[in-house]
């Protein structure tokens, strides 16, 4: 079981097309199923026209998906239950720090000559300020309505495991598996529940993959490092772990990866210019799906 899981916060581009077609090829080659998931937890950026555009683009590419299509915004209760399970195990804590406060504290530490470790995306690790709040103080601030995220207490999470988490990688050619050690500690006390919505990408994706019975995840290399954190959450929540393949990213002539935020040409624009879907598929290396 595989899935293609775009976010409707913009229009799909060729990079999305490559990922969707690769998922379809693997599913067809192995006689598996391919599901579509709409990852729309970011309610402030989700637009109905983007959801409709995703369906139109995938239909144009010749891809068909089973109904009903899972939309994350309809399952916040599932993610809340997972959050509560982690909290009950003492593995989450509320964080009341704003981005500005975190930046100031990191800068102050750097000014004192202290090391500033960074996560795989290059952002400074959260210094753990709110991890040291008493239960009473944290509860009082929440009851007063103070905005907060929920962070994973990474040291406590790692101590709770009987053995380190691992990741299974698979070859899209023959399905051969290899197991490698995960290193979730490099993410520090990651945000597991955002301030604006009752979940996060990390929490939602591991819950959804388990609920949908996803056995193989095919996605871009930009999410490869996040798999360390996902492997940890799967262990903490006692969820099955899929095998993963992270494909190379399509890039522009100057080496930049294609991205909605950078205005990469949308599939809808190609379609409007009269470009045929078979030309796009062939250009991406998918003359046929098999």
Automatic annotation (TrEMBL):
EC number: 6.1.1.-
Ligase found in the keyword field: yes
Record GO biological process: glutamyl-tRNA aminoacylation
Gene3D superfamilies linked: HUPs
Pfam family, one: tRNA-synt_1c
Source superkingdom: Bacteria
Alphabetic keyword roster: Aminoacyl-tRNA synthetase, ATP-binding, Ligase, Metal-binding, Nucleotide-binding, Protein biosynthesis, Zinc
Keyword Acetylation attached: no
The Glutamyl/glutaminyl-tRNA synthetase class Ib catalytic domain, residue ranges: 3-285
GO cellular component: cytosol
MF annotations from Gene Ontology: ATP binding; glutamate-tRNA ligase activity
Family statement: Belongs to the class-I aminoacyl-tRNA synthetase family.
Cited PANTHER family: GLUTAMATE--TRNA LIGASE (PTHR43311), GLUTAMYL-Q TRNA(ASP) SYNTHETASE (PTHR43311:SF1)
Family matches, as NCBIfam families: PRK05710.1-4 (NF004315)
Protein name: Glutamyl-Q tRNA(Asp) synthetase
Organism: Methylorubrum thiocyanatum
